[in-house]
Amino acid sequence: MENRKEKPWMEVKELTHSFGEKKVLDHISFQIGKGKMIGLLGPSGAGKTTLVNILTGQLKPDGGTVRLTGESNRKAETYTAGIMMDSFGLYERLSVWDNMKLFARIYGVPVERIGKLLDRAGLWQARKTAVGRLSKGMRSRVNLCRALLKEADILFLDEPTSGLDPATTEKIHGLLMEEKEAGTTVFLTTHNMQEAAGLCDYIFLLHEGKIVEQGAPKDICRKYNSENRIEVILKCGETHIIPNAKESAAALAGWMDAEEVLSVHSSEPDLEHVFLLLTGKKLAG
To answer: CA torsion sign, 267 to 216 to 282 to 168?
Structure first.
């Protein structure tokens, strides 16, 4: 958690899991805060899906524990999860509305929630369309709406904006922020580093079954800022790389006094560069 004084809502200790002789999770431990946006980042094969399957009760770990330590909407020892994973299918011959109505009945959720969710996700006009006729992006939005049907304590979302255009992605991000502000914990797996940096309060970098780094995105990037330089671009087109130190203050002040500065950028690496530094592999690998 980003604030160690805050009581964690969920605590994961020493999770291990193997498929045959291949160890997929190697003593994973972390804490999750209530009403936080959590990012799980890592290349294919890092163990992300296995970890989510354990957290959602679909898979029993070989060792370790998952314990709820804070309040939920249900009994003290359980929590309600909304799940959006690639493997979760929809009924392609049914319309968007009929799919949602079916799952609302299964979950015991009022049908009145459907219209609001479809409208928020930009799907109202497609409510009578068979799911099999939808684009990949629209199907993803239907799956997200299904995950949001329940008043969940925590949402597990696997690449929720994959294949979506920028306008729809912005809508989805708004939906997720609304859920977070309402007190829902959002556990997000993504390969989109800008998405993780912009949305998540806290992230875990997973590599070969181990968490190799964790923290707030900005804190992680600052931690690995070995160059500690500033790039100054002037209106005349010149670019100057100067140390982020006291000796650069006079030069920077001079450019600013003369109103010559077009932009100033720090040298902090992005999450992709941090993961490459730690593992030698790209996050989308």
So the answer is: negative
Name residue 18's beta-bridge partners: 23
Q: Which CATH superfamily is domain 10-80+151-221 in?
A: P-loop containing nucleotide triphosphate hydrolases (3.40.50.300)
Please report where in the chains the tokens 């730690």 appear, as a residue.
Answer: 278
Q: The whole model's pTM is what?
A: 0.79
| Exposure b/e, 237-273, CB count within 10 A at least 16 = b | eeeeebeeeeeeeeebeebeeeeebeeeeeebbbbbe
The percent of residues above 90 in pLDDT, for the chain, comes to: 40
Contact present, 70 and 64 (Cβ < 8 Å): no
**Residues of each domain in the chain carrying CATH 3.40.50.300:** 10-80+151-221
pLDDT of the residue at 2: 45
